[in-house]
């Protein structure tokens, strides 16, 4: 069956027309060649089950499914799969009677669930890792000679649409995670999706709450001062954001142990400034520094006070704001030690843009980019259902459209192919009419070259990475098939 499995999966195939498939859960069980037609691991009770179901229902030959091996650490994928087979899932996609931590199969519709439960019979050998016992059971089932099920092309087509809203947590997380967004509203939706899809689940944080967490989430907002700066799905209304942002300019703590406004506009450091007047960091540490020298790197405002904050229950989440003026554009980088992406991030970014507007007015600079760095970007359990609905509702099909290519600020590649592929990386800077050749990567495999380029950090834009992958694959194809490769030209 060409092209199967349709979804990436940890599976070994010796014969995809056998009627028996084996799932070894978290156990690394290897079977002698030819003994088991299809077998593989399944670690999680969400994406793992979704991928298994979609791959099974797109192969009409599979009629029996053996579930064996040991459960993966922190998951109950096997128990959840048996519950799914016996009971199905509710309207929210939650597997009925499943005991795993995240037993949701939201990307399987009712027809897919029905097809799976009709097509296969599932056998519970969870805990069994003896290959001989498993092979014996598989051989018994193959002898039944179960006929392939008739294809349902509508379901097959739906199942082949890849959807990865939820994924395996820890092993799939990338650090740092970088998001490029146009506006604050766009940034919030993208950050929400990233944490929901790739967040590692922590069963209990310091507040005794279950969270999904991404470490070192970097969000670069291209036009933070432009609308929309609010999103209708955010818990606060626009008027509340406007009111909240005013607090960043006020020294009034309103009875709390601190406020961002108090730290930013009335800072007093115990060990140095006792008995002295407070400092307005926005005016004195930022605006005055930028007026003295527009190229300064000293325009910094901090909120963390180690002497005070180690004694309070909840110290500031936003720790530092740094402002740079380059080419008459004011750019801001803000660092969060802890960041509630669902309930707070949009409000934080909105307020920071108000500070940027004030500084622009004082210095005559134009608004530039806002870069947010969050050491712990997370969603609390109390917001799981709300976040999930927003993420799923935003998963719409978008028609592809031709747009102009945006150059990568880190440079460009010139690719050629002879006996091997050559990728020359040039910096965008021009000297004496020539671009500077930064380095040359050579090899016969597109994958090896691409991975080397990524390791060297020569790409900063996703569209450039996609383009480069496409060209390297074309170059490798031309070498294998003794064809002439021309960059940016279609294959002939």
Tell me what the CATH architecture of the largest domain is: 2-Layer Sandwich
Judged by helices, strands and strand pairing, the structural class is alpha/beta
Q: In terms of per-residue confidence, which ranges show pLDDT below 50 for 5 or more consecutive residues?
A: 162-174
CATH homologous superfamily descriptor of the largest domain? Thymidylate synthase/dCMP hydroxymethylase domain
The structural domain count equals 3
CATH topology of the largest domain: Thymidylate Synthase, Chain A
Distance between the termini: 28 Å
Mean pLDDT: 87
In total, how many beta strands?
16
Helix residue percentage: 25-40%
CATH class category name of the largest domain: Alpha Beta
Strand content: 15-25%
How many helix segments?
16
Inertia-based shape: globular
Keywords for this entry:
alpha/beta; globular; Thymidylate Synthase, Chain A; 492 residues; five-stranded mixed beta sheet
Topology at a glance:
Elements (H helix, E strand, L loop, with lengths): L10 E3 L6 E4 L14 E3 L6 H11 L6 E6 L7 H11 L22 H10 L1 E6 L4 H12 L10 H7 L9 H4 L4 E5 L2 H15 L1 E3 L8 E11 L16 H9 L13 H6 L4 H4 L7 H12 L7 E3 L3 H4 L8 E9 L2 E8 L2 E2 L4 H19 L2 E15 L3 H10 L18 E6 L3 E11 L2 E10 L2 H11 L5 H19 L12
Parallel strand pairs: 2-3, 2-4, 4-5, 6-8, 11-13, 12-13
Antiparallel strand pairs: 1-3, 7-8, 8-13, 9-10, 10-11, 14-15, 15-16
Helix pairs in contact: 1-3, 7-13, 7-14, 8-13, 11-13, 15-16
């Amino acid at each position: 069956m060409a092209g199967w499995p349709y979804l990436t999966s940890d599976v070994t195939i010796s014969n995809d027309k056998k009627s028996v498939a084996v799932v070894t859960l978290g156990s690394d069980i290897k079977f002698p060649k030819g003994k088991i037609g299809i077998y593989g691991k399944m670690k999680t009770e969400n994406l793992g089950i979704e991928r298994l179901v979609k791959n099974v229902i797109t192969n009409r030959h599979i009629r029996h499914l053996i579930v064996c091996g040991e459960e993966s650490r922190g998951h109950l994928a096997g128990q959840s799969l048996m519950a799914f087979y016996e009971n199905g899932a509710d309207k929210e996609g939650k597997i009925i009677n499943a005991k795993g931590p995240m037993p949701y199969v939201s990307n399987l519709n009712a027809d897919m669930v029905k097809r799976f439960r009709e097509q296969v019979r599932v056998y519970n050998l969870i805990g069994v890792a003896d290959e001989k016992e498993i092979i014996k059971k598989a051989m018994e089932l193959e002898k039944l000679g179960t006929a392939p099920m008739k294809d349902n092309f509508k379901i097959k087509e739906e199942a082949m649409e890849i959807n990865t809203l939820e994924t395996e947590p820890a092993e799939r997380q990338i650090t740092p995670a970088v998001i490029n967004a146009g506006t604050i509203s766009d940034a919030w939706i993208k950050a929400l999706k990233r944490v929901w899809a790739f967040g590692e689940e922590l069963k209990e944080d310091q507040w005794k709450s279950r969270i999904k967490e991404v470490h070192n989430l970097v969000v670069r907002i291209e036009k933070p001062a432009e609308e929309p700066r609010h999103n209708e799905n955010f818990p606060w209304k626009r008027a509340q954001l406007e009111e909240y942002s005013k607090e960043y300019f006020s020294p009034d703590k309103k009875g709390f142990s601190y406020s961002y406004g108090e730290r930013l506009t009335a800072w007093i450091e115990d060990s140095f400034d006792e008995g002295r007047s407070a400092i307005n960091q926005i005016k004195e540490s930022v605006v005055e520094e930028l007026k003295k020298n527009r190229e300064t790197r000293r325009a910094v405002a901090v909120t963390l006070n180690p002497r005070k904050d180690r004694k309070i229950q909840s110290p500031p989440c936003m720790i530092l704001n740094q402002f740079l003026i380059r080419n008459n554009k004011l750019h801001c980088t803000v660092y969060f030690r802890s960041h509630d992406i669902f309930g707070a991030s949009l409000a934080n970014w909105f307020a920071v843009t108000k500070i940027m507007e004030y500084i622009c007015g004082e210095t005559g600079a134009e608004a530039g980019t806002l870069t947010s760095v969050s050491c712990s970007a997370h969603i609390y359990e109390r917001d799981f259902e709300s976040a999930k609905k927003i993420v799923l509702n935003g998963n719409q099909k978008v028609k592809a459209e031709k747009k102009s290519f945006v150059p990568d600020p880190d440079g460009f590649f010139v690719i050629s192919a002879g006996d091997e592929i050559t990728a020359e990386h040039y910096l965008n800077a021009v000297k004496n009419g020539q671009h500077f050749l930064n380095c040359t990567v050579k090899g016969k495999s597109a994958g090896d070259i691409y991975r080397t380029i990524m390791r060297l950090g020569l790409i900063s834009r996703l569209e450039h990475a996609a383009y480069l992958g496409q060209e390297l694959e074309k170059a490798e194809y031309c070498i294998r098939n003794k064809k002439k490769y021309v960059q940016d030209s279609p294959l002939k």
